[in-house]
């Protein structure tokens, strides 16, 4: 008995080739070898066709990403796919779950594909910063045409079985038992010469103008990421080169991208996205069942959280101060769900069902039967403590109490409650039904079981949860505030905001810091600065411009002006003499000499401060691993995934270089910055932050 993950069973006139490599049948070396052997077995056996099926939850989900950093080992997937294609007997791929990347490429080497109705097929390599390297860019366009192949490969978004049938990617969609359906199909093609992909350049070829239009679209969506264009160019080869030459060029393109920093960063993000959900403190802790949740507060945040909870299939009681306010909260949830209906993500009946699971209420007694409460009320300690006191009384002693505070200390909120072990922070990001990040904040007494429950709930809500300890702003906003501070310093020194916003956008962030403040509104920052004013260290440089804007009632887009001004109803930031004047005045009062920073220096300084603060957060144990910080920034703040997050970006840039930049920032404003000892240590070790991920 062999222990190969690929087995061949003879079933009358068919060979059933089964791949069994849990959890997702990735194409590890043993699988490639097994498939290669299986082709020989099928050739030699007295059968008329072969059915390729997978055990477990999915068809082959692609190459084994863990093998990317190892030396490639023969047989390579391209060869194995070629062997299947050249077999003298037809192969039928029976697809269930997700046929992704090398998995779909293996299926493309088969002569026919049949799929379960629920199956999905895609070439998501672009999300890993690479291109499909086993024939995907050559075979797919020959089957589905240029436009559909460009769409599928450059976006990486998989298609449904029904769509695949329309595109000619699958021959048959099987309702009921997939293997039986595939066998029936296979018997119908026994004796037929296996139809191989045409080796001539694909046809019909789009015109030059059509290619140019498609390329421009891909480039725009890529926003600095290189692999979408690499994919595009390789697809175009399918229309000028024969299959073998196209495959060779594809292989070369693949090797270049695989070794790129962007691919390294994206692979890190792939594994970090999974690891972030499993912090050590919850290992072995059993999450509790959560069926009913009370949301306190029906404002923007509360209604967003309620929407997301409903979409996760939970019952929600929304508690407000009055019946009218509760009704307004209910209406906000309805608006959120309506927009999901409009986008085709929810049916009208689906919406009605979710709305029926929502109960607006105007008294805390309504929280009685809930398993968990999330508080999303005004950011004020007294208010929050009152809410928690009322929940403590209304709910069972074991029910979990979560606060959505972004700045207040959960330990203070929990103080005096019957059972502070059940208090946890769940910091959502606005709009909460859209943004993926939730910081799960571990207060002094939060139990591992409560933390595990918060993580499980976040997963149910399809959110990315990251564990944070208690500090001002937790991981994300604390880093944001340091980053804003250095941007403020550069702004005051340069007497300008536009070049800073531009440099940050060019780095790949969706928005520059000043534009972002205008979008989010300047009020919260203002309130925070006032809150922290009594304890502010006078040695730390303080830039007053934002305060001047707020005093003038300029709170951002909503008020028509903030850092920029906005025409009525428009979102385009326009430069504004008021802001310019305020900057000049502030700089003069502070006695700052005018300086210039080029785009590269702006970007490096902003990143150095972000990374320095991240290192400090690690050193203090607020984040357990660099990857937790990376995920917070990617999922909550639009940090470009293809840069891997700030800590990964530090490794890619070279931590010693980041340290040198940080030292330059600190030297310019003595007393304003602490260069993190951990940053120094990691720079000296030469091993990078990744080493601390464990
Ligand atoms: N390689 C290695 N490990 C993988 C893996 C892969 N391709 N896919 C998943 N895993 C691990 C994952 O880390 C997790 O591990 C466990 O499997 C379950 O995954 C030549 C070069 C298939 C839709 O990009 O999209 O083919 O955390 O939690 O939610 O052109 O995994 O349990 O230790 O995500 O049910 C292209 C990536 C590769 C697919 C399943 N393929 N995977 O989702 O489970 S490149 C992909 C996924 C390629 C060729 C090129 C999803 C999934 P752990 P999970 P899931």
Structure summarized in a few sentences:
Belongs to the enoyl-CoA hydratase/isomerase family. The chain is of the alpha/beta class.
Report on this structure:
Helix content is 48%, strand content 11%. By secondary structure, the chain is of the alpha/beta class. The protein folds into three domains: 6-258, 2-enoyl-CoA Hydratase, Chain A, domain 1; 290-468, NAD(P)-binding Rossmann-like Domain (Rossmann fold, 3-Layer(aba) Sandwich), CATH 3.40.50; 476-693, N-(1-d-carboxylethyl)-l-norvaline Dehydrogenase, domain 2, CATH 1.10.1040.50. The strands form three sheets. An eight-stranded mixed sheet has the order 12-11-10-13-14-15-16-17, with helices on both faces. The longest helix has 21 residues, at 474-494. (2S,3S)-3-hydroxy-2-methylbutanoyl-COA (T1G) binds next to strand 5, helix 3 and helix 11. (2S,3S)-3-hydroxy-2-methylbutanoyl-COA is lined by residues 23-24, 26, 58, 61-66, 77, 98, 100-102, 105, 124-125, 128, 130, 132-134, 136, 271, 274. Monomer. It holds the Pfam family 3HCDH. Keywords: Fatty acid metabolism, Isomerase, Lipid degradation, Lipid metabolism, Lyase, Multifunctional enzyme, NAD, Oxidoreductase, Peroxisome. It is found in: Peroxisome.
